[in-house]
Amino acid sequence: MSNLDRQATLSVCGGRGFVVAEPVRELLSPRTVKLGESTEVRRLLPNLGRRMVGAWAFVDHYGPDDIADEPGMQVPPHPHMGLQTVSWLHEGEVLHRDSLGSLQTVRPRELGLMTSGRAISHSEESPRPHARLLHGAQLWVALPDAHRHTEPHFQHHADLPTVTAPGLKATVILGELDGAASPGTIYTPLVGADLTLTAGADLALPLDPDFEYAVLSMSGEAHVDGVPVLPGSMLYLGCGRTELPLRAASDAALMLLGGEPFEEEIVMWWNFIGRSQADIEEAREEWMSGARFGEVKGYDGERLSAPALPPVALKARGRVR
């Protein structure tokens, strides 16, 4: 998914300098961003208070939206580099096209994983006809320097491993949770899991103390380590946890995101992740000139133009403001 913010800002993230080494309970509020013609999203990362969780560098939550009489998601062709995109749905479908020739409809609880590597472009749209409701999350994973120039590729996995306990079904999206490993390709130690809780569930989920974690609430009423987390908000949990207490007052759905704190500082602007302002400037120029990022065929519409770069020099700001 694209960052369609026309006021895109340059930021440097990553590094271990601001990692919280012990358990915390830091509630992150979203900001609202317009995405395409009719979709509004709640952006949790990057956040005013925190920019990354492990290698997770971008989190949008959208819906549930009634799109029965609307076009739904319509994100024109746009570029990516230096990252992986993760499409995750609870309701609806998203049709993915990319410059490799991939054409795939992603459905609820299926993994759509695009590794941009050095360069890729793609579009995302609600199929025609489409389901009445659209509800999901779009996430980015930053690629480490050793792999950020890898060849781009797209993966779709309809069958993902699960972990169950009384009142819980956890689908492992990426990485590993309690011995269950996703088939999705990763380049840093991390985990992403979809947690479905039934009303009255009260349990502790095992965690890796070397990871930092956050939990995004998708729907329902749930308490995470005693903190009520409302749909569309995210609770940052820090490191040093061996388990996470979860309690559901109603049927609820959460996303667990975690990973080893990302060692490297990164520059993230628009839909690019690099290591310097020069990386970003070069990528923008090559997208606008039609080089490097390829062509998305079959989308009915024009591709996106990149916003203007800010006139000020990039300043390193670390993982948090």
From TrEMBL:
Q: What are the Pirin N-terminal domain coordinates in residue numbering?
A: 41-141
Q: Which Pfam families match?
A: Pirin, Pirin_C
SUPFAM superfamilies in the record: RmlC-like cupins (SSF51182)
Describe the location of the Pirin C-terminal domain by residue ranges: 193-292
Going by the entry's taxonomy, the superkingdom of the source organism is recorded as Bacteria
Assigned protein family: Belongs to the pirin family.
Kindly provide the name given to this protein in its UniProt entry. Pirin family protein
Its ancestry begins with: Bacteria, Bacillati, Actinomycetota, Actinomycetes, Kitasatosporales
